[in-house]
Design a protein that fits this description.
It contains 19 helices and 16 strands. By secondary structure, the chain is of the alpha/beta class. The protein has an eight-stranded mixed β-sheet with strand order 1-8-7-3-4-5-6-2. An eight-stranded parallel barrel has the order 9-10-11-12-13-14-15-16. Helix 1 runs antiparallel to helix 2, helix 4 runs antiparallel to helix 5 and helix 10 runs parallel beside helix 12. Bound molecules: phosphoenolpyruvate and magnesium ion. Magnesium ion binds next to helix 16.
């Protein structure tokens, strides 16, 4: 039994097999082998496994994104059946008496070079694909995992670090817990763990190469520990904790259907944060009263091209229809910093958190922005939509946004496309927006305070940097005073104000927020019922 300690970013206990993610392929070594037929058998098994993985990826992508995006996995399946490719691998094993990994890797390289040298653009593009499929087969041969969990059993995922795009693409049903070597408590990956309601640790000092893939382990998000190959006593203590948790969760269910109201009768809107259409289930399961932050950029990451207007319209409409007439606040594209999309070709920046991101991209590349607004305004017909804009720093930006929004509405009206104008608000997540909140309040319908970025920019602490966690004080007086200032300025102008950053779920601050007059709290779905309980017990 080995016990490692990290920092917990979400509580809970999970027990199950380890699944170690290693992105880098192990160096493929050339080895002389005795029996070619055994190696050929290994190749056949790895090819079959690869085809099954690709079929699952095809089905999942088709279901979640659409047939066009899924087609690439069909192409990859066909390439794995290509006779020339397979014959070349077999031949190399038989004539050169080399190991399967080496033969697949070499064949991949050879074919890739041939494709790259062709004149035809379609064939040129297959060059990267053949490397991709060969990598998959080599991974299967070496038992090395990437983030494709399609054929994994539910596991405790160990990785060096996980990017938001990797996390969103993972099959959530397969994840019992996360533990990573790096990462920070306020990263989007930690936020996703909270949303999925799974225990998660960061900063665990582990050597991934040496960990036994498949071995039983426990993640304890209360103690911040990862126990590998626990003894019987530790395993049964974990089982007891898991049973206690289930009991607590059952008790919390008594909060379902109750009003979110303080003992002295003050009503608070209790909403949930989501990252995609598939997360709406968590909102309903946890009885949140609406969606206070739909991070729409998750529709844009982990793919190879911009989502079309139709694709976005379908996603937004689905969320609105499922939520019936409950409030759904969709934030426009907040890409950049840790949330990257390669196809946008954003330049590498020295300070990405202070860089070309979010509304800045939308204002500089209005075509992207307008496509999203068209999809949103069209979807607004199907429910109770509000739209909000991230990373605002000036009055001029808001005026410019409103002008673009009006243009989009006029274009839709002119072409006779059904649409509705949603309520429009802004995120207050920069000190500049706080200081201008008296003027900004006159321009919009609501404020939603993004405490994750507001804390980052106020305290000058990069939320992605795990070395700064010790300096990070989420209850810093400067941030709390800013929230008070924003609430006062909102109310003076007669608009409502909410918090959608992680701080909104901090039960130690619920009383403070209620006293400040915060009207809405939007939290990870898993925090909705505990927060309702807290509000119902807090006279304020
Ligand atoms: C925030 O900054 O508080 C916020 C809610 O947005 P995100 O975490 O997506 O940056
Ligand atoms: Mg933010």
């Amino acid at each position: 039994m080995t016990e490692l300690t990290g920092k917990s970013v979400y509580q809970g206990v999970a027990m199950g097999p380890l699944l170690v993610i290693k992105r880098e392929l192990p160096k493929v070594e050339k080895k002389e082998i005795e029996d070619p037929e055994t190696e050929i058998n290994r190749v056949d098994q790895a090819l079959t496994q690869a085809k099954e993985q690709l079929q699952k990826l095809y089905e999942k992508t088709k279901r979640m994104i659409g047939e066009d995006s899924a087609a690439i996995f069909e192409v990859h399946q066909m390439m794995l059946e290509d006779e020339d490719y397979i014959d070349s691998i077999y031949n190399m094993i038989r004539t050169q008496r080399v190991n399967a990994e080496y033969a697949v890797n070499e064949t991949g390289d050879n074919f890739s070079r041939i494709f790259a040298d062709m004149d035809d653009d379609y064939m040129k593009a297959r060059s990267a694909d053949v490397i991709d499929i060969s990598g998959r087969v080599v991974r299967n041969l070496t038992g090395c995992r990437d983030t494709d969990l399609s054929d994994a059993e539910p596991s405790i995922i160990l990785a060096d670090d996980l990017s938001p795009s990797e996390t969103v693409q993972m099959d959530k049903e397969k994840i019992l817990a996360f533990a990573t070597v790096h990462g920070s408590a306020n990263s989007h990956t930690a936020i996703l763990a909270r949303m999925m309601n799974i225990p998660a640790l960061i900063g665990v000092p582990m050597e991934l190469e040496k960990l036994p893939d498949g071995a039983r382990a426990i993640v304890d998000g209360y103690k911040g520990t990862l126990v590998i190959e626990p003894d019987d006593e530790t395993a049964s203590a974990a089982e007891q904790k898991m049973a206690d948790e289930r009991e607590k969760a059952k008790l919390l269910q008594t909060m379902r259907g109750l009003e979110t109201v303080t003992p002295n009768g003050r009503k608070v809107h209790l909403y949930a944060n989501i990252g995609g259409v598939g997360d709406v289930g968590y909102v309903l399961e946890n009885d949140a009263e609406g969606i206070g932050l739909f991070r729409s950029e998750f529709l844009y990451i982990g793919r190879s091209e911009l989502p079309s207007e139709e694709e976005q319209f379908t996603a937004y409409r689905k969320v609105l229809e499922t939520m019936a007439q409950k409030k759904v606040i969709i934030r426009t594209l907040d890409i950049g910093a840790d949330k990257q999309a390669d196809y946008l070709h954003l330049e590498k920046e020295d300070n990405p958190a202070l860089g070309y991101r979010a509304i800045r991209i939308c204002l500089k590349q209005p075509d992207i922005f307008k496509t999203q607004l068209r999809a949103l305004f069209r979807a607004a017909v199907y429910g109770n939509l509000s739209v909000m804009y991230p990373m605002i720093i000036s009055v001029e930006e808001v005026e410019q946004i409103k002008k673009i929004a009006e243009e989009v509405a006029e274009e839709l009206a002119r072409s006779g496309v059904p649409y509705a104008m949603p309520e429009q608000g802004i995120m207050i997540e920069t000190p500049a927006a706080v200081m201008l909140s008296d003027r900004l309040a006159g321009l919009v319908d609501f404020f939603s305070i993004g405490t994750n970025d507001l804390t980052q920019y106020t305290l000058a602490i990069d939320r992605q940097n795990d070395r700064l966690d010790d300096f990070y004080n989420p209850h810093h007086e400067a941030v709390l005073r800013m929230i008070q200032m924003v609430a006062d300025n909102a109310h003076r102008a007669g608009i409502w104000v909410g918090i959608c950053g992680e701080l909104g779920a901090d039960l130690e601050l619920t009383e403070t927020f209620l006293k400040m007059g915060i009207d809405e709290l939007s939290v990870s779905p898993s925090m909705a019922l505990p927060l309702r309980k807290k509000i119902r017990e807090t006279p304020a």
